[in-house]
């Protein structure tokens, strides 16, 4: 936590659904730390790409754009 608090640039914390990232942000307590709303699941649901094993194509079918939240 102290290492993240020392970072001056914006930091984005990402988890599967956004819940754990939100708890981490509260623990860190800085204004420049964000979470990806909906986490990786929301990202995929919005049709955004993920990097994975070579030759594997994730199924992205959503249309909503992901957003960052504190």
Q: What coarse outline follows from CA principal-axis ratios?
A: elongated
Largest sheet: 3 strands, mixed
> What sequence of helices (H) and strands (E) makes up the elements?
HEHEHE
* Cα radius of gyration in angstroms: 14 Å
Structural class: alpha+beta
Q: Uncertain segments of ≥5 residues (pLDDT<50)?
A: none
Strand content: 5-15%
| Terminal Cα span | 16 Å
Task: Report the mean per-residue pLDDT as an integer.
Answer: 82
The largest sheet has its strands arranged as 1-2-3
Work out the helicity level: 25-40%
- Helical element count? 3
Number of strands: 3
Description:
With 70 residues, the chain is α+β, with helices and mostly antiparallel strands. The chain is 30% helix and 13% strand. The chain contains 3 helices and 3 strands. The chain has helices at 2-5, 19-28, 39-45; strands spanning 11-13, 33-36, 68-69. A 3-stranded mixed β-sheet has the order 1-2-3. It is elongated. 13% of the residues are buried. The model has no long low-confidence stretch (mean pLDDT 82).
Supply the key terms.
single chain, 70 residues, alpha+beta, three-stranded mixed beta sheet, 3 helices, 30% helix
Write the layout of secondary structure elements.
Elements: H1 2-5, E1 11-13, H2 19-28, E2 33-36, H3 39-45, E3 68-69
Parallel strand pairs: 1-2
Antiparallel strand pairs: 2-3
């Amino acid at each position: 936590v102290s290492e993240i608090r020392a970072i001056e640039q914006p930091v984005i914390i990402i988890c599967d659904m956004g819940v754990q990232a939100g708890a981490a942000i509260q623990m860190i307590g800085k204004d420049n730390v964000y979470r990806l709303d909906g986490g990786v699941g929301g990202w995929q649901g919005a049709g955004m790409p993920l990097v994975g094993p070579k030759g594997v194509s994730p199924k992205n079918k959503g249309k909503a754009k992901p957003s960052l939240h504190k």
